[in-house]
Write a structure and sequence with these properties.
The complex is a heterodimer. By secondary structure, chain A is α/β, with parallel strands linked by helices. Chain A has 12 helices and 15 strands. In chain A, a hairpin with a 3-residue loop joins strand 14 and strand 15. The two termini of chain A are about 20 Å apart. Classes of the chains: A alpha/beta, B alpha/beta.
Chain lengths: ~400, ~400
């Protein structure tokens, strides 16, 4: 029998805050954190905006990761979120738990900046630009490896790369590892930062917003990027109870699907989203009428927001307008592989605090997007169960199911 | 875990693109690793004449990176081996799990260098989506219309066994009727240069798994794929299982001093999940590839896990023949192990003359495989360890 899996620790590093209370308060207020970028630039591109994270001094990057923190920004963010989640879980000081503790992180781009740094020198230096540390620095697994090493975790260590659903995929795999008994607990999440490839690529694909992220708004014109990380400690219910852990929420399971439609464009009718949601409900035995909130992928592109709306209608039918669905990307921008992990943290807080965050910047309704997107400000309401929906380039859809702590 | 049947296999390596041809080449002791002048004599095993269109014709193939094309070809071969028409299996019943850590790099370099050279508004937009670590998995799912799920893991050398364990679990749960697990790795000059400068490559080009004289590895082109189905589904369509995935487990140690213990934990986890006792292991298909520390840790882990059976359990290590095809290696070892379980014979370890760690049944000549279970092991440079148990039969 699979074990029940509970959330015993939460960690987030985002522009809206690096601690849970300010993060939640800022989200509930509908405050946008999109600003002109100070810490990232791209030659030939002016006026870049996004949401940036300011890490406090106690998050200094350990020198064994890299002496130069700019060369490991993604791992740095992952470490900061994981440290908070594990601290929040208040695990015993003796450390005996570490051997059966796993780590699963996900990222869209991981440390792609390392390839860009090499490319800046490649024209002049050719293969001499490749230094002995390149392989280690450019390895996507560096995020997971850094977190597992920092905390001496000896259980399964996996790195999911399913583009912008990577965080949710990491949480789904972490859930599996705990539910199946392969690990007593897993710290799982996602991290991402800005890269040249993604900024220039989205610009060329016409998917980068010329203003700012406005999910579900008629004027929406694309994504705005952000950086950050989210991490959750997933633990077997019995294990958590034995040690008297604070139970923040339950992960009931997940659904997955793939659009197999196009390398970038989502399936226009939201069929992939709908199949992931239906599988999530079917495998967890959750009746659709017990879903009280959906944390949307909500990127602010025409296709995504319309597809997601159609999927809601396909899954919830007549009741679709009664299920609030909101996108916190309206405040944080799209943090890529971190997004669904940060959103999972928001789900756990929504369940705990019995309120749902809003979709900010939603002012001009789109007749085709006609659901309750919680515009403007968050609202108090009963949240017994929620879905955390995510998608990525390549059609990778993952829907996580969270419920109140038992 | 519910036993899941392997109903199709593919191994694309420099020693051939058929599993039986690979088995013959390994039995004959052939070695694909050749010294490379541009690597100062360090070795590589290359598939210079690989052409994905020989295996299938899917949209976008021309744009995809070489590792992606290798992966797509491996899936096509594995489906054919399973007797499944790609068009018939496409759709909501098909899932894919891809192991790829570096399969996007050559496209990322190509895209990013075009931005450096021509400016941010001139990069080829068709390349950017293929420059992400997820792109080989995305392209594979798209090529075969795998709508049930497509997951992508980037766990380095441990990844393809992690992927196989994951794929088997998802099929056992009924999340797909058919899953294809694929690992692919293709050489590119930057990776070769990086591996050489990190002193991972044997300077003389000789890969000597477990040997006292080993000085490093050689990177290799390669791809492997397996088709997974629940046994009743396989039987219902008259498919003959090649073997069964009985269990898989993973562990981690960043500290080199803890890596033997981490791999031992993974092995014990996989054996325990499979309800296979160490003495019932008929073959170890080891990941050893000539790394000074890595091979020692692996040998120590196997001695510990196999216990009193260690000296009598045959150990194969095909990286001596094939080099290290990082993201594909674990699956290649698994495919070789399945063939060995069926044939009752396993190949000797090429390049091994004088083992460093005593107490294991290293195959110094082709050996008999008499028990129906195989243990497959894989590790990554970062410290991830993965172990898999395959069985020839299923009593149920």
């Amino acid at each position: 029998m699979p074990q029940r899996v509970v959330v015993t620790g939460l960690g987030v590093v985002s522009a809206a805050g690096t601690e849970l209370d300010p993060f939640w308060q800022h989200l509930m207020a509908g405050q946008s954190f999109i600003r002109p970028l100070a810490g990232f630039s791209c030659a030939g591109m002016e006026g870049l905006v996004g949401s940036e994270v300011a890490l406090p001094p106690e998050d200094a990057l350990p020198p064994w990761v890299d002496r130069d923190a700019t060369r490991a920004r993604c791992a740095h963010l992952a470490l900061a979120a994981a440290r908070r989640a594990l601290g929040d879980a208040a695990l015993p000081a003796d450390g005996a738990w570490r051997e059966r503790a796993g780590c699963v992180f996900g990222s869209t781009m991981a440390e792609e900046r390392q390839a860009s740094a090499l490319d800046d020198r490649f024209a002049a230096e050719g293969l001499d630009a490749v230094d002995p540390g390149f392989l280690e620095r450019a390895d996507p697994f560096r995020l997971t490896g850094a977190v597992a090493r920092a905390h001496g975790l000896g259980g399964p260590a996996l790195m999911t790369t399913t583009a912008c659903s990577s965080g949710n995929a990491a949480l789904a795999l972490g859930y599996d590892l705990v539910a199946s008994g392969a690990a007593d607990l897993v710290v799982a999440g996602g991290a991402d930062t800005f890269t040249r490839a993604v900024f220039t690529g989205f610009l060329r694909l016409g998917a980068l917003s010329k203003s700012f992220c406005r999910p579900f708004d008629k004027r929406r014109d694309g994504v705005t990027f952000g950086e950050g990380a989210g991490a959750l400690v997933l633990e077997g219910l019995e294990h958590a109870r034995r040690r008297g852990a604070r139970l923040r929420a339950e992960v009931a399971g997940y659904g997955m699907s793939n659009d197999a439609h196009h390398i970038t464009a989502p399936e226009p009718n939201g069929d992939g989203f709908a199949r992931a949601m239906r599988q999530a409900l079917a495998t967890t035995g959750l009746a659709p009428e017990r879903v009280d909130w959906v944390s949307a992928h909500g990127t602010g592109t025409q296709y995504n927001d319309l597809g997601e709306t159609r999927a809601m209608k396909a899954v919830f039918g007549e009741r679709a307008r009664d299920v609030p669905i909101s996108s916190i990307k309206s405040m944080l921008g799209h943090t890529n592989g971190a997004a669904s992990a940060i959103e999972a943290v928001a789900c756990a807080l929504a369940l705990e605090r019995q309120a749902v965050p809003p979709t900010a910047n939603l002012e001009v309704p789109d007749p085709e997007c006609d659901l309750d997107y919680v515009p403007g400000q968050g609202r108090a309401r009963h949240v017994g169960a929620c879905l955390n929906l995510s998608a990525g380039f390549g059609g990778f859809n993952v829907c996580l199911v969270l419920g109140r702590a038992p | 875990m519910t036993p899941v049947a392997v109903t199709g296999c593919a191994a694309l390596t420099p020693l051939g693109d058929r599993v039986d041809a690979l088995a013959e080449a390994l039995a004959a002791g052939r070695c694909a690793v050749l010294p490379q002048p541009d690597l100062g004599g360090a070795g590589a095993a290359t598939m210079g004449d690989f052409d994905a269109t020989t295996y299938c014709n899917v949209r976008g193939l021309r744009l995809y990176s070489r590792p992606t094309r290798l992966g797509i070809a491996a899936v096509a071969v594995a489906l054919a081996d399973a007797g499944l028409e790609p068009a018939a299996v496409a759709g909501e019943g098909l899932g894919t799990v891809t192991a790829s850590t570096f399969g996007h790099l050559e496209t990322l370099f190509e895209y990013d260098r075009s931005v450096v050279a021509q400016g941010p508004l001139r990069g080829n937009p068709a390349l950017m989506p293929l420059a992400l670590p997820s792109s080989p998995g995305a392209a594979i799912a798209l090529s075969f219309v795998a709508k049930a799920f497509s997951l992508s893991l980037s766990d380095g050398g441990a990844g393809s066994l992690d992927a196989l364990g994951l794929g088997a679990r998802l099929v056992a749960e009924g999340r797909a009727r058919v899953a294809v697990v694929v690992g692919a790795f293709g050489l590119c000059p930057e990776l070769q240069a990086a591996a050489r400068r990190a002193e991972l490559l044997a300077p003389d080009g000789a890969v000597r798994p477990f040997d006292r004289r080993r000085r490093g590895t050689a990177l290799a082109d390669g791809a492997a794929a397996v088709v997974l189905e629940r046994l009743p589904d396989a039987r219902a369509r008259g498919a003959e299982p090649r073997g069964f995935v009985a269990g898989q487990a993973s562990a981690f140690s960043a500290d080199p001093a803890g890596r033997a213990a981490a791999l031992a934990r993974a092995c014990r986890g996989a054996l325990s999940a499979s309800r296979v006792a160490p003495a019932e292991v008929g073959l170890v298909s080891a990941g050893a590839g000539g790394s000074v520390e890595g091979d020692r840790a692996e040998a120590q882990a196997l001695v510990e896990v196999l216990g009193s059976a260690a000296p009598f359990t045959p150990v194969a290590a095909v990286k001596g023949n094939l080099g290290d095809a990082v993201d594909a290696s674990g699956l290649l070892q698994a495919v070789v192990a399945l063939a060995a379980l069926r044939a009752g014979k396993a190949p000797r370890i090429a390049g091994l003359e004088a083992p460093e760690v005593a107490g294991l049944g290293y195959l110094d000549r082709p050996g008999d495989v008499t028990a129906p279970s195989a243990l497959v092991t894989a590790t990554s440079l970062a410290g991830a360890a993965s172990a898999l148990v395959l069985t020839a039969r299923h009593d149920g």
